Model the fold of this input.
Amino acid sequence: MTEQASPTPASERPDAEAAASSSSEEPSALMSRLRVIEDQPLADRAAALGQLHDELRARLESGDAPRPHA
Done:
């Protein structure tokens, strides 16, 4: 038996995940967001990881990716 779950709207996501989705996301915020995602049930995890993938791809394609400090 498989569970079907719809993606959680942004307004219902945990604060750590919502805070981590800002455009100035740092590596530690990304790790926190991934920890929150990994604690979710499988179907929710898949949806959240798909959303994260889309956000990161859009960010890279827009050229807004933070650059490491030299």
